[in-house]
Amino acid sequence: MTWRLIILTVIAGCLTAAEYRGVVKFGNIPIPSAAVTAQQGDKKQTVLTDAQGAYAFRDLTDGTWAFQVEMRGFAPLQRDVQLPEAQPAPAEWSLKMLPITEISTAPAAEVRVAEAPKTEIKRPANVAAPAATNTKSGFQRTEVTATNTPPAPAAEVSAETSQRAADGFLVNGSVNNAASSPFSQLPAFGNNRGVRRWPYNGNLGVIIDNSSLDARPFSLTGQNTNRPSYNKITGLAALSGPIRIPGLLKNGPSFTATYQWIRNRNVTTQSAIMPTEAERNGDFSKSLTLQGLPVQLPIYGTQIPVSSISPQARALLGFYPLPNSSSGRYNYQVPLINNTHQDNLQFLSNKQIGRKDNLNGTFQMASGRTDNPNIFGFLATGKSLNTNSTITWRHNFTSRMYSTIAYQFNRNSSRNIPYWSNRQNISSDFGITGNNQDPVNWGPPALNFANGIAALGEAQYAKNVNQSSGVAVTNFLARRSHNITYGFDFRRQQTNTISQQDPRGTFTFTGAAAGYDFAGFLLGVPDAASIAYGNADKYFRSNVWDTYINDDWRFRSGLTLQLGIRWEYNSPISEIYGRLVNMNVGPNFTTATPIVANASPDPLIHPDKNNIAPRLGFAWRPLPASSFIVRGGYGIYYDTSVYQSIANQMAQQAPLSTSLRVQNSILNPLTLADGFKGSPNITNTTFGIDPYFRIGYAQNWQVSVQRDLPAALQMVVTYLGIKGTRGVQQFLPNTFPPLSLDPCRLCPSGFSYMTSNGNSTRHAGTLQLRRRLRNGFTAEMLYTYAKSIDNAALGGSGFLTAQNWLDLSAERARSNFDQRHTVTLTTQYTTGATSGLGFLNSGKKAAYFREWTVATTLTVGTGLPLTPSYYAPVPGTGVTSSLRGTYTGADIYDAPSGLHLNPAAFAIPAPGTWGNAGRNIITGPSQFVFNASLGRTFRMSDRFNSDLRVDATNILNHPVFPNWNTIITSAQFGLPSTANQMRTIQTSFRLRF
Q: Where is the domain boundary, 182, 197, 212?
């Protein structure tokens, strides 16, 4: 509790000071870095105005104070003020500019620069001291020091003052100080700080999230699950300044070093269905199907004799906990504790070499450790170490031409260790044969159930070392009305992996063999099995090239054009030992032969080098001096990341590895003891790709109209269109509907095949209303209406496997990410910015209530699309896929009590037919996000400021479900499978110096 008391003491000390505030303007333009002096007898304080022209004094005693505002280029102003004021309000100063002939000869504001025993610089916390400016333009930097001693004689300060005179505001109205520059640095970094002052900046911070402040996770079972306590702590530290080594390096490069320390212990609640005590003993008399009828097994009726239960099944049942709830359709719920430890270090350095060269570099290092338990208590651990370094050199040939050369090196290593790795050989002890027996891959096989019972599984062992290095060259040339940028990039990528795709194997139970999935498990008869191991070490290599040229052309005063073109090339990923496998297929897939890369004269995938991408854009103001602006653009963008997942599939299959996907049948019966055996009718090579596979691309076009409205509003209306071409498609050749005859018994099957024949379209319209910052309040509303359709995975998540390989057009439907309506409202308000609220502007109350910033974000949207499906082995393969059900015509959303979807709307297709339900025809639950934050900066002294911020996610504690369960054979159909996080509170405190 000590650190909490320290923080509260610091905050309490910051809240006790009263303030007197004002603003300095030139017309309606705020003037930054103006010197404002308050004097009462021998008491004198001087502050600088911030980027908004505002200033503030603390602890001014009662009585008459003489205020004076000085700024080079403007006539000084003076005013006497009696404190306290009867009606306190921010003072407003309106400066008048001196004639241009007087600006160069006007004396600088006379301020004390000599050392004093007591020094106090008053400056708003969010404003840096003014930066050193270009002395060639006649503007130099100023050091303002306020003391309680009388001013030094003019002769004492005249020479030094003449070297430190400044303008924060140029004659043409541009801002010159670092606080308001878009390139500003941390406060006092190279800015207005004396020679004898400490030249470094820094900050210390802590972010805290404790379980005592958070809401309890939403319970899908309705039971009150105990939640262990947890903490989330993030420590922050930063330091920046010049690098100096006494006697060796006097004027070294500047640097910024940051360190982040994260220790999170998070708790999530997971719900599932576990087999009941009766079901474990083979009694299914109380188990109900989706229609509410008792389960009838073909041979045993509703009771499996205990003597018929497979010994492997009985052993694996030991991993399943007993139900701990009888409410709802989920009968088990447990909290899971995840631990995350991270350490992040970042170092940046910059050095100006002469007048034309600049050298800067960055180094980042992050290490992490994670603990990830699952619902069965299997705790997987992970470790990672990532480094990233960049060095950049820039040379200015002239003021209108420069070149930049950058080199970047990344190295990321990670290791994931499953719970049973090197602990116990579960498969061997339980009598399960045919899977990998390496100690790192020990553990139980995966078990999948079609009707909703929790799937047994564990993470896979993996060791990854990924490395990339690249060079980027950028050139800039400004010539008349053209700003031309051109260059090229090259990157060499290495992916080194030691892992197996599925070394322990997977058994799937759908009820096809026994009439009920869990009954088939007890009998030890899986309906499908799959496995993939061998060739564990893989060393992938690829090259990435691109070159581009872009012209920012100021065609005329009201029209700007962007003209550019880009060429990209990503080489297909290769394995340094040639251990990749593809399928050479004959016409109509009548034949299929594996091809190994190191034995093939031709490449497995031919390179695609024709990736030319034009970029066009414009900004047009049709009426001079009008706020009406039209913008538009067109561009082509390529999906350059597709090769990585393809290489992973090509590396883990026969004949280089043990791989198969097989279905239980009379000719090839499967058991838990001996289920990983191939079938003579199914090829063991499980993946193939079109050798002339092309990289997909998207054409984007956009038009927007912007217009200012009354009441400080701005409106932007935008239309965005996207056309995707050559999207990824994946299907299973020579498959046929369940319970129908095989039309081609001699044709190869059992493998997935990938092509690039898909396409997609998306159209979106947005309406944006923004209220500019006024009286401390700003807000923005964004409404989006969009529709996206595809028959591929381009732009979506994951590859889609077509249900009927002979009718790929049936896959065209709403995209997985298609969200029709979305509204986002953001607001921000800072107290004390309205002049009418006097108690927030001066006096002791102002210290408590003013300068608090409240921000909120509210997002409301319609649900994402979902597909009604059921698990079943695809005939002719060992692939267990989510096949679509048949739509009965009933209302999908006319759900019975307790459900969100109508189970009667879908059914299993009739034998010999595919389901007629379309892909993504169900709209999932609506989305709702409401977050808020509260924060303030406390000014402690001229060197120290502190920031306090409280962030709340899901502040209303409203349960939101990301999706429904849409497995039509599951007892959970129409129920949420999980819930989003409930309310969390995060507190951040940062000390800046």
A: 197
Q: Global pTM?
A: 0.76
Domain that holds residue 807: 581-636+658-733+741-811
User: Which neighbouring-strand residues pair with 766?
Assistant: 718, 784
Candidates 457, 448, 435, 431; CA nearest to 521 is 448
pLDDT (tens digit per residue) in 517-527: 899 999 999 99
Q: Is 464 helix (H, G, I), strand (E, B) or coil?
A: strand
Please report the beta strands in 510-628, taking only residues with DSSP state E, as ranges in sequence order: 528-533, 537-556, 559-570, 574-575, 581-585, 592-596, 611-620
Share the mean pLDDT of the chain: 82
Residue 964 lies in a domain: no
Domain tally for the chain?
A: 2
* 111 located within any domain: yes
- Find out whether 78 and 66 touch, Cβ atoms under 8 Å: yes
Q: How far apart are CA 165 and CA 33, in angstroms?
A: 12
Q: Which of 808, 802, 976, 824 is nearest to 898 (CA)?
A: 976
Tens-place pLDDT, residues 320-335:
999 988 766 788 988 8
* Contacts (Cβ under 8 Å, ≥6 apart) of 247: none
CA distance 977 to 246: 64
Amino acid at 871: Y
Report whether 414 contacts 383 (CB < 8 A). Answer: yes
* Position 200, amino acid: Y
For the record, the structure tokens of 884 come out as: 């679509």
Q: Is the four-CA dihedral 290, 292, 293, 294 of positive or negative sign?
A: positive
Q: Is residue 965 part of a domain?
A: no
CATH code, domain with 57: 2.60.40.1120
pLDDT above 90 covers a percentage of the chain that reads: 51
Write b or e for each residue in 247-274: b if 16 or more Cβ atoms lie within 10 A of its Cβ, otherwise e: eeeeeebbbbbbebebebbbbebbbbbb
Query: Could you give the count of Cα atoms lying within 13 Å of 224 in the half-sphere of its Cβ?
Result: 0
In a 10 Å sphere around its CB, with 0-12 CB exposed, 13-18 middle and 19+ buried, how is residue 16 labelled?
exposed
- Where among 197, 222, 249 does a domain terminate? 197
**pLDDT over 90 at 2, yes or no:** no
* Euclidean distance between CA atoms 857 and 749, whole angstroms: 52
Token pair 């990410």 is found at 817
- Does residue 188 belong to any structural domain of this protein? yes
> Following DSSP, what letter does each residue of 314-333 receive, concatenated?
HHHHTTSPPP---SSS--EE
pLDDT of amino acid 758 = 92
Is the separation of the CB atoms in 722 and 783 below 8 Å?
no
Separation of alpha carbons 443 and 448, rounded Å: 16
How far apart are alpha carbons 445 and 642 in whole angstroms? 30
User: What would the pLDDT profile of 401-450 be if each residue is shown by its tens digit?
Assistant: 999 999 999 999 999 999 999 999 999 999 999 999 999 999 999 999 98
Say how far apart CA 668 and CA 20 lie, in whole Å. 88
- pLDDT band for 147, please (50, 70, 90 cuts): very low
Instruction: Assess contact for 679 and 661: CB atoms under 8 A.
Output: no
Q: Which helix (H) or strand (E) holds 752?
A: strand 752-774
* Residue 221 token pair: 């079972």
